[in-house]
Amino acid sequence: MSRTTATSPAYPASPAPATAGAPVRRLTVLYDAECSLCAHVRDWLLRQRRLVPLELVPAGSDEARRRFPGLDHATTLDEVTVVADAGQVYRGAAAWVVVLWALREHRPLAHRLSTPTGAVLARGAVLAAAKWRGGQFGGRAYRRADGWAYEPGKGWLYTGPGCDDGACASR
User: Could you give the CA distance from residue 158 to residue 105 in angstroms, rounded to a whole number?
Assistant: First the structure.
């Protein structure tokens, strides 16, 4: 698995030899809790059988800041970030691959995606998700905070504020 440079206070911005080759026994996935796609993936991950325990923590939350004070938490809201128990930090495509590696049914796929050819596919999937979240495919237009929710099988549902006071919010 490729991994990015660790960036917590215990691990400086240069390569972290202390974590090189360290076994991964637990992963913390930082996800955007306000992103419907991210919440859907979180729910999917919670239903999967795991070979490595996963903890799912909202990115930028007080909990994430407490656990990982050296991370750039604004970046964790823009790019999926996974932190392993020995301090390894994975971002983008590498983060998706390491999460798949932790799942019983998806570990073989993770091994294929960790090859040079597979990495191109993994990067493409991450870029497509980023475009969706960034609004090109409607991602930013459908935010939980605005009353939108995605339900598999039903699609996008709007559950915004009611018109009790006679002033309905426009969509």
Answer: 34
